Amino acid sequence: MTTPIRYELIKTDKQTGARLGVVHTPHGSFETPTFMPVGTLATVKTMSPEDLESMGANIILSNTYHLWLRPGEDIIKEAGGLHKFMNWDGAILTDSGGFQVFSLSDMRKITEEGVHFRNHLNGEKLFLSPEKAMQIQNDLGSDIMMAFDECPPYPATHEYMKQSVERTSRWAERCLAAHARPDVQGLFGIIQGGEYEDLRKQSAQDLISLDLPGYAVGGLSVGEPKDVMNRVLEFTTPLMPSNKPRYLMGVGSPDSLIDGAIRGIDMFDCVLPTRIARNGTCMTSSGRLVVRNAKYARDFGPIDENCDCHVCRNYTRAYIRHLIKCNETFGFRLTTYHNLYFLLKLMEQVRQAIREDRLGDFKEEFFEQYGLNKPDAKNF
Ligand SMILES: [Zn+2]
């Protein structure tokens, strides 16, 4: 059977080993390493598909759990799938719903069959299983679907994590068996195992035996320190097939994107740039900037003088601060656009550095300018 998702390796960076590649999907191809903006409810909050296209996004992520509850996957299927429903012709990745079940719901019970929990909106009893997660994602029609997994909190004991990894492997087999459209939608497996090397190895081996078209590293960016994440990636990515895309879930701070790419990751997603944008915080080439702060009230310069996005070319910090202070939607649009553009541009710079075998140098320069070499540096 031909897979709908194909990875092509272009080259590796001589300084770091980072990969430059292309992922081909039924809705176009994109170069990697790349960042995927998150459109939880079939919209990247405040952005139109035209905005996303203009900033160079060619794959976005949407959340199975949220779309299952509202408007319901049956309505999206009836619309002709998620691409048609939201008028987005690029690639779409959907998560399995697992992470939301574990993070949003506190009334949950995990069984071999699946997870019983309560709807975070109205308390209604719900049940999500590998089969149900596949049926919803098949109805949504995403290009890349994620296997239903358990994402245990950090820290978890070795004993608990081992049971969880084994269950996640059994659930992945059930996902593959239930996948109704393998010719047009690619199913990715999620390697779990927390910070334990033996369990990451076991998880990778189990999932790789299913010969899925791509693999993700899950269970990171859940509260562990950065050095733990980097260490886990260092022993996990070498376990992953080199001829398939590698996706690090839920990571989106500039330093983690660079550190992840250096450790062989191709795809990233995170709500960070869009979420902080709605709080009036911007990512800039010299670090984060809280544009809602009073000191910008009379600052008529752009958010980032080194950014060539349409927001930085046309609007001032003073204006954007004013809009955000007044809760004007347009202000959130402007900061969101800039932050996404900034990360997409960063990934373009990372790809260019790999092309020129200088990602190690690029990292040094970027960290220095972003203020990440200071001992009290923030994550973004
Ligand atoms: Zn900008």
TrEMBL record:
Residue sites binding Zn(2+) per the record: C307, C309, C312, H338
Name this protein carries in UniProt: Queuine tRNA-ribosyltransferase
Catalytic residues in the record: D95 (proton acceptor), D269 (nucleophile)
Gene3D superfamilies: Queuine tRNA-ribosyltransferase-like (3.20.20.105)
InterPro entries hit by this protein: ArchSynthase1/Queuine_TRR, TGT, TGT-like_sf, tRNA_ribo_trans-like
Known pathway: tRNA modification; tRNA-queuosine biosynthesis
Function in brief: Catalyzes the base-exchange of a guanine (G) residue with the queuine precursor 7-aminomethyl-7-deazaguanine (PreQ1) at position 34 (anticodon wobble position) in tRNAs with GU(N) anticodons (tRNA-Asp, -Asn, -His and -Tyr). Catalysis occurs through a double-displacement mechanism. The nucleophile active site attacks the C1' of nucleotide 34 to detach the guanine base from the RNA, forming a covalent enzyme-RNA intermediate. The proton acceptor active site deprotonates the incoming PreQ1, allowing a nucleophilic attack on the C1' of the ribose to form the product.
Entry keyword annotation includes Zinc: yes
Binding site for substrate: D95, S96, G97, G98, F99, D149, Q192, G219
Gene from which this protein is expressed: tgt
Enzyme Commission number, as recorded: 2.4.2.29
Residue span, tRNA-guanine(15) transglycosylase-like domain: 16-370
Family from the record: Belongs to the queuine tRNA-ribosyltransferase family.
Keyword annotations from UniProtKB, A to Z: Glycosyltransferase, Metal-binding, Queuosine biosynthesis, Transferase, tRNA processing, Zinc
Ranges where the record places region RNA binding: 250-256, 274-278
Catalytic reaction(s) noted: 7-aminomethyl-7-carbaguanine + guanosine(34) in tRNA = 7-aminomethyl-7-carbaguanosine(34) in tRNA + guanine
Cofactor: Zn(2+)
GO molecular function terms attached to this record: glycosyltransferase activity
NCBIfam families per record: Q_tRNA_tgt, tgt_general
Subunit structure: Homodimer. Within each dimer, one monomer is responsible for RNA recognition and catalysis, while the other monomer binds to the replacement base PreQ1.
Cofactor note: Binds 1 zinc ion per subunit.
